[in-house]
Amino acid sequence: MRVVVTGANRGIGLELVRQLRARGDEVEAACRHPETATQLRELGGRVHRCDVAEDASVKAFAAELGDTPIDLMINNAGISGGSHQQLRDMDFEEAVRTYQVDALGPLRVSLALLPNLRHGAGKKLAHITSGLGSIGDNRSGGFYGYRMAKAALNMASKSLAVELRSEGIISVVVNPGWVQTDMGGKSAAVTVADSVRGILHAVDNATLDQSGEFLDWKGTQYPW
To answer: pTM of this prediction?
Structure first.
């Protein structure tokens, strides 16, 4: 199976590449700065430059792949929204940047590589979302930029699922949990390895009937 992973240079993305390659999959890994992605390059395989927030960068990535069939696309690239996401100090410029990366970025990449996915055997789109993007599970407020961007990503995945169902293409969002990454912090509850194992299990087992769903790394559905 050939898999595209964005944001592959660290955290969940890096572990996705590691586990996918370990099980024998071919990975097209993408990140903003391949030249400094030492750990990623050490895993071997092809590493591409791709800034999901920039149209030209995404188009260049698609051109580099050419007609290569893609079985699974994992939109993992994302940012946290910064430190000014509260009522008292909202940074709207950072919120717009977060929306560009976390919401429009996955859609931008999905549309650019849709021809490749159509020629693949797996025909799956998986977008890494967050529990903070759940409206039903929002009990604390705050994190406006990040929450809103991830909720928008969830809606994009649902619309992709509706429009691409007739072609047999599956689109799901997956909550990775609170993960011990640079973004999640050392006190997070879930290790990167465990989260990624759960993500891959959920995506591997996702069926067309589940297309459009909000999945959890634990193998269950997450509240919208």
So the answer is: 0.95
